[in-house]
Design goal:
The complex is a heterodimer of chains A (149) and B (162). Chain A is mainly alpha-helical and 149 residues long. Helices cover 81% and strands 0% of the residues of chain A. By secondary structure, chain B is mainly alpha-helical. The mean pLDDT of chain B is 94. Classes of the chains: A mainly alpha (149), B mainly alpha (162).
Chain lengths: 149, 162
């Protein structure tokens, strides 16, 4: 199935067009800056590393973060198609997906608990986990270029 | 002059150390990404607020994100200098890198204008006030320049020599 994906028109465009790959990488790093950037600012506030914004303000800012996530899901999916059969066996890629999934589940939980004004200690713990997940996702993402198994 | 500087850097102990240290390059890249997350994450909120979005957040509130932005910048300055020393002949002639550095300098000038002229305007403004044009322009310039820095950095491996 993954070999089939690599032969779709989309995958061939990504892998053979001169500018498709760098363009998608640019979209992917912009989305990264938005989603991981905003979530990190949120988590650092919740943990107490920085202060300034009230917790509830992140309920509004989350919409922009989700836009970043959508940009990266689409650009990531397109980058994936070009070497699908390789990526599905690549350990850093698979761990990256895992960390992003956890990061999103934690984000949903954190926003829900902020909205319901739940116990801050639990929100803080979730924020610590969330920060670890997103930084791990970045580490795994970078290692895709270095670890080939 | 750039050629002489490049030669000078290539002969340095720092260059030899970076090239000889196993796994240092990917570790530097990871820190460069962490730094960009802090820098851009904070800036997106500050600059968009200055342009006029997120009017439910006070300007005095977003201002408090700047230490995080500066910290992110310092992480990237240090890792960036190490990249440059690690492979001087590659970066010094790369057009993407050259334009990126010019944009960083321009962003620095914009930050100085912000600090001296624009930030003092914040204290007189209420949440519902119309933003002075000076604030909007400074925010827009900052976001544009740093987005340029981000994209050019990503394109360094794909563009040619200047």
């Amino acid at each position: 199935m993954f070999v089939w994906i690599e032969n779709t028109a989309l995958a061939l465009w990504v892998s053979t067009s001169l500018w498709a790959y760098p363009f998608l990488l640019c979209a992917h790093i912009s989305g990264l800056a938005i989603v991981v950037g905003i979530f990190t600012v949120r988590d650092f506030h919740l943990i107490g590393i920085i202060s300034g914004l009230q917790e509830t303000k992140f309920l509004e800012l989350r919409k922009l973060a989700y836009c970043g996530f959508i940009i990266n899901s689409l650009s990531g999916l397109m980058l994936f198609t070009s070497q699908a059969s390789y990526f599905v066996t690549n350990a850093p890629f698979l761990s990256k997906l895992l960390f992003i999934s956890f990061g999103i589940i934690l984000a949903l939980q954190i926003h829900k608990r902020i909205r319901e004004k739940q116990d801050h200690r639990i929100i803080k713990r979730l924020a610590i986990c969330s920060s670890i997940c997103w930084f791990s996702a970045i580490i795994s993402g970078r290692l895709i270029a270095y670890i080939f198994t | 002059m750039i050629e002489a500087l490049t030669e000078e850097m290539m002969a340095s102990n720092l260059t030899q150390w970076i090239q000889a240290t196993y796994w240092l390059w990917p570790i530097l890249e990871i820190f460069h990404f962490f730094g960009l997350t802090l820098l851009m994450g904070g800036l997106i909120i500050v600059d968009l607020r200055m342009i006029g979005f997120f009017s439910y957040i006070g300007l005095e509130e977003v201002k408090k994100l700047l230490p995080l932005v500066i910290f992110g910048f310092l992480v990237n300055l240090i890792t960036g200098v190490l990249f440059l020393f690690g492979d001087p002949s590659r970066y010094s002639i790369n057009i993407g890198f050259q334009i990126k550095m010019i944009l960083v300098l321009l962003a620095g000038c914009n930050a100085a204008i912000y600090h001296l002229k624009v930030e003092p305007l914040f204290s007189n403004l209420n949440l519902t006030d119309r933003l002075p044009l000076a604030i909007k322009i400074t925010g827009f310039t900052s976001l544009t320049l740093w987005t340029g820095v981000l994209l050019l950095g990503r394109l360094i491996p794909y563009v040619g020599t200047g």
